[in-house]
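Task 17 of the worksheet. Students: predict the tertiary structure of the chain below and write it out as structure tokens. Keep your answer in the requested format; marks are given for formatting as well as content.
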Amino acid sequence: MFKQAHRLEIILPDWLGAFAQGYASTADLTKRMEFVIAAARMNVVEKSGGPFAAAIFESDSGNLVALGVNLVTGQGLSILHAEIVAIALAQRKLGGYDLGGRAMPSHDLFASTEPCAMCLGAIPWSGVRRLVTAACDEDARAIGFDEGDKPDDWVASLVGRGIETITSVGRRQAAEVLRFYADGLGVIYNAREG
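Model answer:
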């Protein structure tokens, strides 16, 4: 007899909440990205997932709404990329699927690496008004990650939907986290490896 699961649970790493408490609100985009890159590094050190982190901030105040890290290997679910985790946590916290709703302040998504094809697709549906990224697609591919097929000018596709996009903020530091993960023999997961 077929039995369908009736619940999907995501368990966040124990260290994540305390780490997020250490964030001091700032309007400075570089400082926000430093915080996100530090979370990506901590995810590697703690062995809780891949070398990626993302956060949702209120655009103007810089208040942290949600911090997400990649949980693919730790949870065994291919969809648990840092951006997806951060968006889901923010939507749950704020009580709705549209982070760009009329009664809400504008929200930013910061990601330690440019979005893969899946995350790129989720960004417009999230309601964020700005995306800020650090490491580039080519940095992730350089250590073996498959980022999927994206439009050549994916930035223009987001801008065309009213989502301001800023890339390469802290790129060097974020690329170092990717290399740190690879050098430590972190799992470079892709479908049908080999």
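Marker's comment: DSSP finds eight helices and five strands in the chain. The helical segments are 14-21, 29-45, 72-75, 82-94, 117-126, 137-142, 154-159, 171-183.
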